[in-house]
Amino acid sequence: xxxxxxxxxxxxxxxxxxxxxxxxxxxxxxxxxxxLALVPATIFVYLLGLIGVVADGEPVRIAFAWIPSxxxxxxxxxxxxxxxxxxxxxxxxxxxxxxxxxxxxGHPHLGRFLAYLLAFMGAMLGLVLADNMLALFGFWxxxxxxSFLLISFDHRRQAARRAxxxxxxxxxxxxxxxxxxxxxxxxxxxxxxxxAIRAAGGTLGESSVYLLVLWLFLAAAFSKSAxxxxxxxxxxxxxxxxxxxxxLHSATMVQAGVYLLARMTPILGETPAWTGILCTVxxxxxxxxxxxxLRQTDIKLMLAQTTIxxxxxxxxxxxIGSETALxxxxxxxxxxxxxxxxxxxxAGIIDHETGTRDLTALGGLRDKLPLxxxxxxxxxxSMIGLPPTLGYFSKEEMYLALFGxxxxxxxxxxxxxxxxxxxxxxALIIAIRPFMGRLGVTPKTPHEAxxxxxxxxxALGVGAVLFGxxxxxxxxxxxxxxxxxxxxxxxxxxxxTGIDPLNPIxxxxxxxxxxxxxxxxxxxxxxxxxxxxxxxxxxxxxxGFDVFMFxxxxxxxxxxxxxHHGRLELYMLVIFVxxxxxxxxxxxxxxxxxxxPELPALHFHEAVVVVLALAGLVSxxxxxxxxxxxxxxxxxxxxxxxxxxxxxxxxxxFTQLMVEILSVVILALVMTRLNLDVRDSRxxxxxxxxxxxxxLCGVGFVMVLLVVLGQPFNGRLSxxxxxxxxxxxxxxxxxxxxxxxxxxxxxxxxMSVIMVAGIAILALLRSQVRKPLDPTPVRRRSPRKSAAKSxxxxxxxxxxxxxxxxxxxxxxxxxTRKAGPETGGAGA
Length: 828
Description:
The protein is an all-alpha fold. The chain is built from 34 helices and 2 strands.
């Protein structure tokens, strides 16, 4: 297989696997997750083989013709950054699919769930591999759609539906910002492909619209990566099944914003605005999420809040932008993906095997779940940042990036130490509280989970530890090409190994661990205080979203009632008023009143046709009956067809004649169901209003035609149709050839609209029930007596019918609805 096809298969293989997932589930129900996991595993192995090529400074780029007329290619680009993200997505995704197959074993919709997961994986892979910005936007939006399907998988619960809608709305708003930013970047730098922009050395830092473009991309990234104040959708996404949470929080969806910021660093970075905004937002998000995590007792919610904090940390490091900060960002991204996926899967195991995720109800599980306990310890020490895990190296690098700077660096260092300490406390809580102490009383008797659920956390935990023993290879093959791709220049990464007591960075790590241990020790008191602060009266961000959506729905309802009132007359009036404005205002604004042409001398037969057209028009306006109006309209159309024929357009004349005949026949047939002898009544005010609008539209069309006729004639289009109508379409009737061949799809659409309208009219006419004529004369009653009799008949209809029934009279039965819970009883 060629390289182009192989990369294309990597991008789209998950989508094909998603289409086959339900069939695979039916065929191999017990092992469906394991079978489908072969797809991301194969992708991971293939991408692993590209590490050497990319590390040598030879990024892979392929392109396929997409829309050549617009210069758009479906292009994919694999450098260090794209390869690191793609390996993380496919590697973690392999374990997630194996875990999901066991976690939801026996679920009737497991096949559908696995299909959603694979599509979600494919969207994220396409996002990080796409080089064309429009393709990146397409995959970006696809991650929002697939995440919506995954979060709302248990759609019977209102909380799941609300969380899915919330995530979709917020991330889609960011997607619109991304589209606008991509279009603006292309217009300013002249390329759709990000690799072409970087190769040309294009940056937007000196552009006058830099801040606008910057905020567009930041809005997209912040909404996707749950940055403050757009962070609130992420904890609510916990309504999704645990495999979704494990995948979404570690390697997909929320990391898309981080990837976008990293990818745009060479184009938008190295400016005070970039550094100031990213460091401020990232630092606030880090502390917000870290404190919010210690307020929770649900393991999944605690992990969700730590994800917000970790995303803020990644954004903070990208904002700093130094070589050391970017190296720390890459290491932390990989470490976070490994331990966060493992901890979420562990939270699912605990819930699956005990029936609860409440930390206050759990304890003593280390003997009941020994493998899960080992996996938890391995993931927790990486989250805490203990050596020799990747988490330790990332923490050392980020402290080194800010050590010894000015007051801004000291402030940033304090934020990092406090945030890492709180995250370490959360890791200690999750690793110790459920497993140590006495065995808690849980809804289910705890026991070890199946191997398919434990293998993922164990493998990811072991991997986070083993990477610390292969730092030279990790520096050369992963860190250097990835950080170089982010910075846009060559960076030689070297992780600092060994423990030197004289190294001040080590003492900062010790301070972090000490603060984390203190927060763990005082967790109960700290949690109580944080909950009291969160319970203070005020508008939360989550509640603010509900208020926004409620106001949006109310506004939509008000606009609907205002514009969609059901009065066809007003609809037509608004349409024609806007049409008149669209015709007249541009002409007046651009060229003023057009010059009136000299009228040619008309021959007698030409004057007769013009008079016939005017007579038909006047007859339509003053017709007394509908039938006469239809015939007058046909006469006016016939005069137009004759004008076409007299002035050298017989084909168009013939087409116009056929249309007029069919219009008259169809209108007459339709009107046979109506009263053709009645004239539509219209008040004087309405007649003046409608006449004025009609005159304005007529004046507008005349002005536009005069402007067009005042321009030099360009016969290229006429020559084209005259020449190729016979050569290509084999037709001599040019008008028909244009309608059938050159505008075939347009004509098909018009025919479809007419057919649908005709069917609708026919259905409406048939729905009218014609009442049979009653020859019995109707006596006139006074309204009061008639109303009294009607009320009496409704209240007691059976009182009068009963004597007739006893006398043997044949009276029709009245059908009555039985009383029941839906009808509300007899009173309904």
